[in-house]
Amino acid sequence: MLIAHLPAGYIIATAASRRATSPAIMAAALIGSVAPDFDMIYFYASGGRVHHHAYVTHWPLFWLVSALLILPLLKWLRPAWLAAGFVFFAAAMLHMVMDTIAAPLLWLAPFSVREFEMVRVPATHGNWILSFMLHWTFLLEIAICVSALGLFLIRSRRAGTDQSTA
Asked: SS3 for 142?
């Protein structure tokens, strides 16, 4: 996925905000939704010799083990942060699922280097970004972005209505 991770994080945060009142929910979801791509810094700094999905931040087991270690600590040390922590890890895992749609991901790393992907996007153009944008799977990204925008507009309208009636 190219453009839908952050909008997907917004959708997760909006859904989670209905159940949890922590003000950190939105920030946790947005950061978690793009956290796996922090490896892009190293990817470009190292000359891009290895696909960034091979780095540890794109290993689903890394995020699962991190959640299993960190969430109990949050519950014990900072219970007020637990909901935000859960949302952060849920958003990071959603990133993994979304990437698996049209790009290979190492779901079993570090135990296996077998790649999983639902659809292979062929290199139909000289630029790989153009190949992705003109592939049918990009419509899924557009749908996620439009859904997030619609959700944002609905929430903004409700917030404006609530303030005018107060």
From this structure: helix
25 CB-near residues (< 8 Å, 6+ apart): 13, 16, 17, 83, 84, 87
Residue 39 to residue 24: CA distance in whole angstroms: 24
- Asked, as a colleague might, if the bond just before 122 is cis with ω within 30 of 0, I would say no
Instruction: Quote the CA–CA distance of 95 and 33 in Å, as a whole number.
Output: 6
Helix, strand, coil percent values for the chain (each to nearest 5): 70, 0, 30
| Claim: this prediction has a pTM higher than 0.85 | yes
In three-state secondary structure terms, 124 is coil
Is 29 within 8 Å of 10 (Cβ atoms)?
Answer: yes
**In this model, does residue 166 exceed pLDDT 70?**
no
**Structurally, how many domains does the chain consist of?**
1
pLDDT digits (tens, 9 = 90+) for 75-110: 999 999 999 999 999 999 999 999 999 999 999 999
Determine the Cα–Cα distance for residues 166 and 157; give it in Å rounded to an integer: 14
Query: Are 148 and 11 a contacting pair, CB within 8 Å?
Result: yes
**CA separation for the pair 8, 4 (Å, rounded):** 6
**Structural domain boundaries, residue 146:** 5-165
